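Researcher: Structure prediction, please.
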Amino acid sequence: KFYAEFTFDADAPSYPLVTVEARSDSFNANYKWTFDFKEATTNKTFKVDLAKLSDELTSELVNNCKWAFTCSDSITDESYVTIKNFKIVDNVNKVTYTADDIDEVTLDGNTKKLTMNTLNKSNYTLKDSTVIYYKGFENPNIHYKVGNGDWTSAPGIEMTATNEKEGYTHKAYINLNGSDSVTACFNDGNGNWDSNFEKNYTFGAGTYTYDAYGNINKIEDAKFAANLYADEVSPISLDKKVTLKTDVIGAKGNCTYKFGYVTDDEEFVLRDYNSDSTFTYDKFVNGSYTFFVDVKDSNGDVVRAKLYDFQSRKVEGSMFDMNTRNCLIGEKVTGKATFDFEVKNGKDNEYVYTATRSQDKTSIHLPVNENGEFEFVPETWGEYEINCTVTDAAGNTASISGYVTVNDEEDSLKIFSYYSFGKDNKGVVIKNQMYTLNLNIRGGQEPYTYSYEYENVDTGSKGVLESYAEYYESAHFYPTELGKYKVTATVTDAAGATVTTTDEFVCETVMITSVEFNPEEGHVGDAIEMTTNTVNEMYYRFANSRTYTITHRESGETEEVYDNVLMHGRTAIWTPKKAGIYDIKVTVNSYGAGPAYYDTTYTVLPSGNETVIYYKGFENPNVHYCVDGGNWTNVPGYPMEATTEKEGYNYKAVINLGDANGVTVCFNDGKGNWDSANGRNYRFETGVYTYENGKLNKIK
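Model: Predicted structure follows.
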């Protein structure tokens, strides 16, 4: 179906190698195969089956690849080898691709490489094929038969995920093999089928879109075709310059080119239309780019070609080599860290090596030679982390580490390392949860005996950790008091030598950090979501229960609401039946470490379009008002209701706005004394307000 072809012309029998490579960024494909032609003679043409590269090749993939031929002659003997007439042949569609520039190389103990960009015809229909862009099932299969042939085995072939066609998630490429059409249906692999009520769907040669509603649309072939490729291979470091190049076939007259890229779903134009078919870009940041070129011919027809997922990266560690991972005190340790994607810009990047002893966390800087290699001569036994941090010319930093274990010749008794469990990375152990100390003992004379003690530094209380046996190197206990703890482990060997080590932690309990309400302002009858956030919360099998004790401040009515512990939720739903201010006490019963409490308030608005005013001023006030578009109330208005709902405010008014947006208000004491902002009055909109001495404040 697909083969590579080239011709040898040699002065004498020779042993050249030809490596054929194919790469496609849009298909995430990368193939390579080397052909060794023993004793090739003059003027011999070779055809090599490209199935040797991959049995996955299709016309579309061959068409989307950038091909390269690397030709090598290993012996310099003044016997020249010429290789020429390079071709990639698609026998399915009867398409032949040739080299970009040179089509002949001459070798004598050297290597030469030539490239071939097959033209990307993703919007240019290959004859004898069907392309379907699909949206519907999340992970679709296509089950089909070509012409009168056999159906694929159910559930069919997995469709390829793609972002080539906006709005469509998957793609299928089907070779018609001389037939006029393909019959197809779709499924999700879980028994759910889209088969047009068992009548199936028919597609001819060409490119189609299909959606889950059975809509089939044939895409008209583009007037011409374009291919976009880069002179660098992705990924690249941030300092690289990349030149984008365009190939065009079938366009009318002279073309102009507009370049840009898409990242994070936002499109940026790099250069508007002009006659240059290339563009060099050097403003990379860490991330992935989809470059595009819009090609316009003299008829005004425009075709877009894309280069998908071109990545630029910050420096990152790749390898840490050392001459040894175990040594004695005084022995030399050497090595080197290597990094990918460093930005150089003609400058020397800065490499800093440190060696940190795990037993006491002491660190030293290590010398580095001109080759970037470190040297470390340990003076103390222990386990060391050797870290290299690089800062490149753009200011990007990265680190990578290697580890070495250092022993002493005397093999004296030592606590080589210890590990504590139950303590988080902030040094916190939760109340009533198990803390465990494990020791790693080396040297001395066995058997060892162990003792473990703890002290609460804040309270002065002391105790011992439980161990399974006298000769066991692990012990544990359950801290029941809050505060800072110091744990001391002592090890004695058979000769009486003794070593100790200490560990510290802080014992804390569950705490509620906040309670969130959604919405922030609720109305009577709304479903209010209440979410409680905590730290130091412990779980056992199910989430801990949260209880919300909710009291209506004015009436004193109380109810309790719970979250759904089986769903591991932190959220409860409450539907208030009265307007007003509610006092809410939240209780979290954390497994072994609770309970924790939190007090908060929530204001519920009336269910209608109303204005609520909490008032402080006259002793027995009236409210005189005019709803937008209506008439003023009769003087002196309506008496305000005495209330204790809102701390610091003695009276309350609820005004129904109907369909209006607001109300104009003034106040009086019924004795001829008025508060009307000197005749300007006060303006309120829907919601809850406080009022005092001419100041309005809308309550969130």
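Model: Confidence is low (pLDDT under 50) at residues 119-125.
Researcher: Thanks, that helps.
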